[in-house]
Amino acid sequence: MSSERPTAEELRQGMTVEIVQDDADPESEDTEPIIGEVGTVYGDEPEGARVKLKSGVVGHVQSVAPDE
Q1: In whole angstroms, what is the distance from residue 15 CA to residue 27 CA?
Q2: How far is residue 20 CA from its own chain's centroid?
Q3: 47 in the Ramachandran plot: left (φ > 0), alpha (ψ -120 to 50) or beta?
Q4: I want to staple 18 with a disulfide (CB 3.0 to 4.6 A). Which of 33, 40, 67, 68 is the partner?
Q5: Which of these, 40, 38, 20, lies nearest to 29 by C-alpha position?
Q6: Could you tell me the pLDDT band of residue 59, with boundaries at 50, 70 and 90?
Q7: pTM of the full predicted structure?
Q8: Which 8-state DSSP code applies to residue 56?
């Protein structure tokens, strides 16, 4: 995987990712990324791959969390 945002094709259910929630203001510096496990991958969009986390939060993937 590249250092850029992962594509929907690169994502798999259960991967831990960092997302920006759909209803978050992308221009706000206060927007906190959310880390969680991928439940459903919807597809690629200009803002990044759109996913639903197992917690139910929907957003665009910014990065894949490093393995611990």
Answers
A1: 27
A2: 6
A3: alpha
A4: 33
A5: 20
A6: very high
A7: 0.82
A8: S
